[in-house]
Specification:
The protein is mainly α.
Length: 199
C-alpha cells in the first residue's frame, strides 16, 4: 500500500510540474526533461508513471479539473446561499473564468491544450468529453434553479448551458489578451446570470 500511495503522489507531483511549465511556457516549453527536473524525479520515474505523453497530458487535465472543482466548491461553501442552484451556477462560471492568479494559470493551460487539440484528435476527444461534462452540470443547475422558481421557465437548459460555455470561452481568451479585465468579466457574467433569472 505505501508504494501505491508513493506512486500516486509522484504522478500528482509530475502533473503539477507539467501544469506549471505549460502555464509559463506553453506546450512546446513543457519537455519531459524539464518536468522531471521541476518535480525532482528522474526521467525514468516519469516514464514509469506515464506510459505515453498522451497519458500524461490526460492526467494533467484531470489534475487541473480537480483544482478548479475544489476552488469552485470553496466559493460555493463561502457564499450567502450555498445550497442554491443559481449560486452554484454563478460560482461554477466564475470558477472557470480567469479572475485571479490560480485561475489565470489554469486558463493558459486549457487554451494551450485547446491549440494542441486542433491537431491532436486524441486530445480533442478528451476535451470534448470534458466540455460535455461541464454542459451537463450547467444544464442540471439551470433545470434545478427553474424547479425552484429562480430561473425563467421558458428557457431550454441545454441550450443555455451551451451559450454559457461559449460566453466563458470567449471571456477566457479576451481576459488573457487584455481586452477584458477581471471586473468587466465579472460584470459580463452577472449580466448573463441576471438574464436567466425569473421575474
Amino acid at each position: 500500500m505505501p508504494r501505491q500511495v508513493d506512486h500516486d503522489s509522484r504522478r500528482r507531483r509530475i502533473a503539477q510540474a507539467v501544469f506549471e511549465l505549460i502555464s509559463e511556457r506553453g506546450m512546446e516549453g513543457a519537455t519531459l526533461r524539464d518536468a522531471a527536473a521541476r518535480a525532482g524525479v528522474s526521467m525514468g520515474a516519469v516514464q514509469r508513471c506515464f506510459a505515453t505523453k498522451e497519458e500524461m497530458v490526460a492526467f494533467v487535465m484531470e489534475h487541473m479539473n480537480r483544482r478548479i472543482t475544489e476552488r469552485v466548491q470553496a466559493r460555493i461553501s463561502g457564499s450567502a446561499e450555498p445550497g442554491s442552484a443559481l449560486t452554484m451556477l454563478e460560482q461554477t462560471l466564475a470558477g472557470i473564468v480567469p479572475l485571479d492568479g490560480p485561475s489565470t494559470a489554469e486558463t493558459r493551460v486549457w487554451l494551450a491544450f485547446t491549440a494542441q487539440a486542433a491537431v491532436d484528435p486524441g486530445l480533442a476527444a478528451v476535451q470534448r468529453e470534458q466540455y460535455a461534462g461541464l454542459a451537463g452540470l450547467l444544464a442540471l443547475l439551470i433545470r434545478t434553479a427553474q424547479d425552484a422558481g429562480h430561473v425563467r421557465p421558458d428557457l431550454d437548459p441545454e441550450r443555455e448551458a451551451d451559450a454559457l460555455i461559449t460566453l466563458t470561452d470567449g471571456l477566457n481568451v479576451q481576459l488573457l489578451v487584455g481586452r477584458h479585465t477581471a471586473d468587466s468579466a465579472r460584470a459580463e457574467l452577472s449580466r448573463r446570470i441576471d438574464a436567466l433569472r425569473a421575474g
